[in-house]
């Protein structure tokens, strides 16, 4: 934990606490950006970075010691906190930067409110491989472990497949709990994933279930699945953030569409995730901090402090320019985000209520171990039960409507 002093004053107000997901070099770069946000008020900023973000935040809320600002990637979780009156609505001009699909307005008691703003985004519809590797018959790397949230690399697969097979409209219905888990489009996405990964040995399955999405660790840190011993594989389906484990290693990146048995008209629809800042404190300085972090100047500071492999990515939208790409991989990702995308759709599991998202994670792990159709039918039945129950529970609460549109249809 590091206290950062942006300026001097005769008084010493309490530090503003920012809780976020970034550790290691990412955390260091964000801390450095905070340090440079000199507003002349004498406020200090304490950054707490953790990989167990949800657990840490829930514990702090239960102890009535929430952070002033928290950065989360789950619209489902953020919606729950807003529903419980644990978030403060954003003020202008921050709200103007909370563009769809990453931070839609919520209807609260008949009023449209905005509760979070994206600080960075990542493109998820990507496939990674080593330069020179043939791509006609890929052998897939899969690592599904991730501490308390194991399974999300598998949900990313299913989400991306469904988006490219059924399109943004059906994807949105499913992500926002308006489509049954037994729907044929949903079933096909699961069975397509099983077919793409068919032929794995029992040892390979267990290795994937227990290996981190970062791959194995070496003297210099994570090695990435493409470079990990025991993974005889040629291609990896993973988000743009994974570039930090492959920096300078002759790795190429390309859109995932052609690998997923999708339809041509959905080729340039991409799945994205976002790290979004929300205010948990009634201290006006917390609102001011989020305003500065989400500004073009705040983005420039952050990028300037970060190594190329962990530089935050931003789409060129609402007049907020993206910076010059640092290398060929980032250049390709930047082009997909800002030039080629016909639609950008938020990560479906991160839109779902936490109970449904967690059940989705568990179901993916079980299905990966046993992809038999009978087992799949049982798992989807369980997920449908959770969906219906969560929807009924939501209807019992005060007037509050979560987002219904999570895809930004670019170019009209």
What's the overall geometry? globular
Strand content: 15-25%
Rg over CA atoms, rounded to whole Å, is 21 Å
Give the helix proportion (percent range). 25-40%
Q: Major beta sheet, specifics?
A: 8 strands, mixed
The number of helical elements comes to 12
Region (Disordered): 208-229
Protein name: Alpha-glucoside ABC transporter substrate-binding protein
Verbal overview:
37% of the residues lie in helices and 17% in strands. It has 412 residues and is α+β, with helices and mostly antiparallel strands. The protein has two domains: 2-122 and 274-334, Periplasmic binding protein-like II (D-Maltodextrin-Binding Protein, domain 2), CATH 3.40.190; 128-269 and 347-409, D-Maltodextrin-Binding Protein, domain 2. A hairpin with a 2-residue loop joins strand 5 and strand 6. Helix 4 (152-175) runs antiparallel to helix 5. The relative contact order is 0.18. This is Alpha-glucoside ABC transporter substrate-binding protein. Residues 208-229 are annotated as: Disordered. It comes from Streptomyces apricus.
Indicate the topology.
Blueprint: E1 2-4, E2 16-20, H1 24-35, E3 45-49, H2 53-62, E4 69-72, H3 75-83, E5 106-108, E6 111-113, E7 116-123, E8 126-130, E9 140-141, H4 152-175, H5 184-196, H6 202-210, E10 217-218, E11 221-222, E12 235-237, E13 251-255, E14 269-279, H7 284-293, H8 296-305, H9 328-340, E15 343-346, H10 348-351, H11 354-369, H12 373-395, E16 400-401, E17 407-409
Parallel strand pairs: 2-3, 2-4, 9-12, 14-15
Antiparallel strand pairs: 1-3, 4-14, 5-6, 5-16, 7-14, 8-12, 8-13, 10-11, 15-17
């Amino acid at each position: 934990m590091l206290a950062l002093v942006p300026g001097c004053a005769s008084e010493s107000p309490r530090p503003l606490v920012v809780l976020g997901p970034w550790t290691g070099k990412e955390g260091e770069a964000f801390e450095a950006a905070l340090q440079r946000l000199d507003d002349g008020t004498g406020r200090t900023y304490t950054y707490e970075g953790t990989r167990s973000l949800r657990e840490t935040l829930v514990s702090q809320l239960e102890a009535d010691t929430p952070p002033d600002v928290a950065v989360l990637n789950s619209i489902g979780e953020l919606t729950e906190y807003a529903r419980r009156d644990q978030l403060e609505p954003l003020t202008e001009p921050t709200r103007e930067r909370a563009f769809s699909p990453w931070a839609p307005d919520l209807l609260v008691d008949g009023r449209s409110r905005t509760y979070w703003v994206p600080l960075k985004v990542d493109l998820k519809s990507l496939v990674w491989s080593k330069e020179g590797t043939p791509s006609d018959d890929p052998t897939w790397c899969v690592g599904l472990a991730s501490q308390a949230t194991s399974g999300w690399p598998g949900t990313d697969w299913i989400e991306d497949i469904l988006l490219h097979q059924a399109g943004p409209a059906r994807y949105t219905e499913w992500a926002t709990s308006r489509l049954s888990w037994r729907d044929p489009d949903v079933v096909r996405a699961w069975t397509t994933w099983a077919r793409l990964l068919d032929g794995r040995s029992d040892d390979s399955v267990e290795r994937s279930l227990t290996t981190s999405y970062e791959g194995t660790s070496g003297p210099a840190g994570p090695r990435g699945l493409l470079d990990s011993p025991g993974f005889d594989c040629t291609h990896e389906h993973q988000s743009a953030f994974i570039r930090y484990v492959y920096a300078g290693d002759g790795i190429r990146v390309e859109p995932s569409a052609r690998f997923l048995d999708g339809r041509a008209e959905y080729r340039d629809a991409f799945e994205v995730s976002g790290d979004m800042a929300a205010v948990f404190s009634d201290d006006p300085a917390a609102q001011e901090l989020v305003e500065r972090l989400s500004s073009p100047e705040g983005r420039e500071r952050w990028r300037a402090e970060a190594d190329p492999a962990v530089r935050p990515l931003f789409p060129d939208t609402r007049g907020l320019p993206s910076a010059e790409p640092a290398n060929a991989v980032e250049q390709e990702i930047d082009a997909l985000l800002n030039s080629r995308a016909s639609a950008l759709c938020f990560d479906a599991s991160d839109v779902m209520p936490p109970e449904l998202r967690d059940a989705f994670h568990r179901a993916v792990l079980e299905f990966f171990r046993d992809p038999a159709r009978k087992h799949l039918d049982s798992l989807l039945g369980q997920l449908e039960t959770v969906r219906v129950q969560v929807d009924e529970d939501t209807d019992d609460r005060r007037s509050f409507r979560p987002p219904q549109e999570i895809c930004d249809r670019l170019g009209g």
